[in-house]
Amino acid sequence: MTKHQISPSVLVLLLSSFLALAQPGPIPPGPPGAGQGIISGQVYDQDLSVPIEYANVVLYRQRDSSQVTGTVTDAQGRYRLTGVPAGRFYIDVSFIGYEPRRIENIQLATAAQIDLGRIQLRQTVLAVKGVEATAERPALSYQIDKKVIDVSRLATAASGTAVDVLENAPSVKVDAEGNVTLRGSQNFTVLIDNRPSPLDGSEALQQIPAATIDRIEIITNPSARYDPEGVSGIINVILKKQRQSGLSGMASADGGWPVRTGTSLLLSLRTDRLNLFGGGNFNLGRFPGTRLTDVRTWSDSAPDTIRSFSDGSGIRQHRFWGLRAGGEYRWTGKVRTSLNLNYGSRGFGSGQDASYRRWAAPGANDTLVQLSRDTSHHGGDFIAANLDHIHGLAGPEGHQLAIAVSYRRMYGNERSTSILLDSLADTIISGRQDRQSGPRQPVDLKLDYTLPLRKEDKLEAGSATALHNALSRQEVWEYSPVSDSFEFRPEYGYLVNYAELRQAFYAQYAGKFGRLGLQPALRVEYADRVVDAGDSGRFAFRRWDVFPTLHASYELPAGHQVMASYTRRIQRQRGWELWPFTTRMDAYNLRRGNPDLRPEVTDAFEAGWQRSFGESRVSLEGYYRVTNDKVERIRTVYAPGVILHTAANVGKDYSFGAEATSTLVLARWLNLDLTGDVFNYRVKGTVAGADFDTSRFRWEGRASTEIRLPTQTRITLSARYESPEISAQEAEPGRLWTDAAIRQAFLNRQLVLTLSARDLLGTAAWESESRGQGFYNYFKFRRQSPSVSLNLVWNFNNYRPERRQPVETGTDELGTGSQGEFGE
User: Fold this and answer.
1) 594: helix, coil or strand?
2) Cα–Cα distance between 74 and 78 in angstroms, integer?
3) What's this model's pTM, rounded to 2 decimal places?
4) In the predicted model, is pLDDT for residue 271 greater than 80?
5) Which runs of E-coded beta strand occur in 393-488?
6) Contact criterion met (CB below 8 Å) for 541 and 563
């Protein structure tokens, strides 16, 4: 255990180190007395007519080719070179996957300003032994405010879901049941096409087929313009879209072993003013494995330790289907309206058959042998509707008012059954079934105003209103040996009403001052939460919160750029964590909510540096996060051999670390992607009246190589390792994943076939140890491995997701300021 605490001065030292590392040396000065001029313009994709973000723009003297200055383009493809002396120059513009372009004979007078307009770049065609292959962006790229995963480059995720894509993403961890954590927390927000998802967190990601995803954006430090919910940030899933006129579509099908099957269909129709789309998907997966538990409980009043050891088989499964449709109509060049509808159903389940051996030690020598059969299922239907209207106002380009309305309704249905049987007589000893059901209906209204200022600055302001209502009904059924059936027990049932109102106002200014870009923002939010648990009480919670954020970037010559940011975010608990009732997870595990939970509030600092070397790229990012009122899942002894799971505010946690990533183009046919994350995690506070202070150094590493053959064949090999992890009561050992895939394209990439294998070495087991006052718990689950899947994707008419376009502009949660459902 450690007693020291990382001070904020360490963050300053880290940022200073980044700045020192990125310094390229002085810019050659102009002639004595010369004024300083400005050269600006935009960089666009020649074929798609969309801006290219983060293209390198470097200025050289015409007479001796000496470098003067440089920068990178912003999200609108714009660049601005300031402090340029008078003289004659040329500019080199480049970006990964595009042919570089040189603009020569640029004559700049003293203190003059030149706008070079649009510079068009053409996507590169690389010759490999006489066969042409289109160059592409790296699978993982770092941008000013986010990490972007190009899903088309991840052959190992072709037949999975968004969760499978994120398994190899930095800052992300996925457990045995497909639960995703971002920077160590499951508290993050999921957006789909910049709009609120109808589901929350991992459930939303588990129902999106990877074949329909264009890219995933991981935003760990969002500005105050976003909803501050989700202390670890935002995961924004951008779906594939049509960008050419006419009727197009995409269909996919996949199957695998163990049981895994899925299919999806997407149709799009685009005209000058109207864009329509519709589609659906289905996915079924079953993942069998083996499980083992070792539980020990004791107390000061009892001399014996009750030990329960079990081993057996288990299975995790999911099943979901969904339909989506919508469109966008452009009334004029500045006015457009879009509507998106989603309807579907999801189901997640698990089951286990285990042999239990229970005994007291020291003491009685008799061993009680029992069989346990436990099943659980949760899911239900969902529907979501998002209406967006953007109205351009008089004045400069981008002066607009945007209104967004979102309605979601998720019906939850959860059932868990636990049965104990006599191992000799094969008769039921005891059994219980817990059922929970009820709808959840969030409604969100957002109003945004944008006013461009100067050439590159803008002021944004707006308001957001959220109304969330939920109803949860609990029913308990117990086994009766008299009737040999489950009988309803009304005395254990309950009904809970949950209501929450949030009202927020924000203002944000984005400006550029020479090489320095600043984006300060402030959000003020009022929240009113009421949990009505009937006879158990009515629990109200009201508070005001202020969420300041600041993002800064500084452009250095030769494509260097450093960034830094500070944000504050919040996580408000919902669902069973607040219900003051006890429900059964299995024969020896119960859970109970805590309606007095306070929200977690996180202050996060980040700093980063990026540099391109031709087609290769290196990025380095450091972060420091402090969470107050940290909520942990707590275990206590409920009865001899029985563990109670609940949640409590335990204190604070601290994360301090750095992430590095590099995309190395070793040859025209060979890429190597390396990612590393090292950090120190510390959590301290009080659990069950006892103080604790625990810390551990952790690291994660990922390596992926892609081999491109001249037959439109790609071979991908990847490995990932996670070091041990801790929390207030729990510790997990390290894990290693190894995956491989081969992808073959046919018919000019209209037909793509992918064969992938996951966990080749069978080392990705989920294992944990937890300790607390009066108990010890060990758990291990190993999936059947390796798993193999075959995926087929067909793109017809003019739908071409394989032809890589630059990242669209705009990243706000409601799509305002973006290119809409189908791009510009």
Assistant:
1) coil
2) 5
3) 0.72
4) yes
5) 400-422, 428-453, 457-480, 485-488
6) no
